[in-house]
Amino acid sequence: MPKWLMDYKPGDKVSFNDFMASRIGYYPGSGYDGCLVKTCNQAHCVHSFIQVDYGIAERKMKLKAEEFNAFNGYHVIGRVDWHEQDLAPHGQYAPNFRMTEREIEKAMSFVMKDTEPYCFMEVYERNVDKGDNWGAKRFAVTFLFADGIASYYQLFCRRYCKAPWIFLLQDHGFGGNYAGFGHGTLMEKVMEANDCWPKNVICSEDTRIWNHYEKVDADPVIGGLHRNLRFLYKRCAF
Hints:
This protein is α/β, with parallel strands linked by helices. It has helices at residues 3-6, 16-20, 35-43, 58-67, 84-87, 101-110, 148-159, 186-194, and strands spanning 24-28, 48-52, 74-81, 119-126, 138-144, 166-169, 200-204, 213-215, 221-223, 228-235.
């Protein structure tokens, strides 16, 4: 567990840099699906997560997360609000990859323009009636109202120059997106242009895994709106 998370007290300020220095789990198009957090939490392998979606307002996302018990067995002990200056203090990086006119058109037209953007982190602590076999004592989730592909490029490919440790790959995520995320998509194009590939991927059965990943011999997990089987893959040498 990162030191900042272990030492966190309600009301503490946490810098986005400290959060990003942690081992990160990334889920674009996540909606209120808690599958990535639950899976990694039970394995005690990741304690910091970024869930990105531009199709769900903050209030609805919170209500749905509670309704679906997305983080069952935990309660929120603190919240940190971040702003664009925290995520991109020097402004947005220009793309170093080519987008088709169709991709640009779809990206510009798909966002809910009447929804107030948000970016905040919540720190969760395990309920006292749960033990280590349930999951980690604490974890933190950053909820970001944004384009999952553009956010990956800005944060992982350019600003911090490190890939997330694990990535949940589900085309169209929990709701709808202007593009998929699997093999042959703009997301793969961005990763290839910047050689920024996650070490581990949890990939849905209905999504094409990227090149140079091999399936791990492990039981699948179930998640998402349609309760898809999701399998673990690791980046392999080639």
